[in-house]
Amino acid sequence: MRALALAVLGLSFAGASARADDWMPHPANAHWQYLWSDSVYNPHGTVENVVVQQQQGSSFTLAWADAQETPPPAGATSITCLTNSDVGTMSFQDTNSGVINTDWNSCPPPAGMPILCASPAGCSNSVSSTLYTLIWGNRVPVLSEPLLQGTSWNATGGADGSAASSSQYLGTRLVKVPAFPNGVRAAVVVSNIAQSGALGDPYGTGVRTVWWVPGVGPVKVVFDHTGGANAPITSASLMSTNLKPQPPPSDADYFPLRQGLKGTYQWVNKKHLAQPEVESVSVDAVVNRSARIAVKSISGPIKVLGQYGLDDRVDGVTNLWGSTSAATLAKLPRLGHNRHFLTPIDLMVFGYNPVLPEYPQAGASWRSGNAADFRTFGVKGKTTIIGVRKVHVPAGTFSALEVRSVLTQHGYPFGSGVRTSWFAAGRGLVKLVFNHRDGSVSVVQLLK
User: Fold this and answer.
1) CA-CA distances (angstroms) from residue 436 to 81, 268, 270?
2) Cα 212 → chain centroid
3) How distant is the alpha carbon of residue 114 from its chain centre?
4) With left for phi above 0 and alpha for psi between -120 and 50, is residue 426 left, alpha or beta?
5) Which tens digit of pLDDT belongs to each residue from 276-329?
6) Does domain 2-6+252-446 have CATH number 2.60.40?
7) What's the CA gap between 114 and 212, in Å, rounded?
8) How far is 70 from 86, CA to CA, in rounded Å?
9) CA atoms of 207 and 101, how far apart (whole Å)
């Protein structure tokens, strides 16, 4: 039996195309102006000016006010509310799993709006501003990252956690708002939100769509409330900003951690494996974008059962832990740090994190350097994304992302060499070739 545990620390990438905070940027001088409206309760709309009030490390606070007032300055401990004032602050944090909402403080909703609590006394729930509409039903996270094909998540919201949501990323679309009248490319996220037990039911329930533009943030929010043909529609559109939109990064998911995904792999090494090793790999469980991957031998000289923990977050696809138990007739060369190659996953994650960066693109590269990785594997090296190539394997022909790693495990030629991996969008690893420095070559291919 063997086990490994890796601590995932911050990494930097040459050629990387997106930062973790691109979807909700917050430079000190940033400002946005939105028109927020409700078709029943605020049909004429309110112009809201939003600024970055303060930021500290990964945490930041946005402040807003209607056009007749001034957003609360940094350090303000209270908010002055006139009749129907639209003034407030909202705090967020950039995390490894995306943007989360941590706090808020504002004037109460306009009189006559539905009460989103079981009692009107001390009710802190509201959708009466752009930012409130944005976080309703999904505070942790507000936006799950990275945004890749198939990304979905569940969350709760409201001060009392009474609003629950299920969100799904639908891809990118061209959207026109006053700030970008010619259109801008945005990532579209749709959330089905449910709340029950509030005095204002069913106003807290419905479908919300948010258009996110990298480099700018949300540019449009539409909340279709439940309640029949004349149900209210809450919306917010970006009128102006001093931020510049960036093109969305590729949303191809080259290593999907999708529960139920299965594959059968063959591993051959003519020098060290007398017969091919065939193993099944399956994603057995997924929670908050962290997955447990199971490996089991089907035929060949290695009898193995293995489990691995990987996740896909802002740090990219990372290997968190692994454990295997095996009996083998194969006389494979020794590796340092008590490592063993027993499964295709062993060959794939060997060396250092990440397996893939957040938004992989041709030319991106990263080096070893994480102390925890080195204590686990004792490997130094560099990984480079070559680009997308056609790859033919028994399971079919794939347009796959080619990733090349030069690895050195000092004193162990079998743990050193050049490893080239190919990852297909929606499928994951389809082929791996490890040219070991002992002169042998390990080839892993997806059979089905």
Assistant:
1) 70, 13, 12
2) 14
3) 34
4) left
5) 999 999 999 999 999 999 999 999 999 999 999 999 999 999 999 999 999 998
6) no
7) 27
8) 10
9) 20
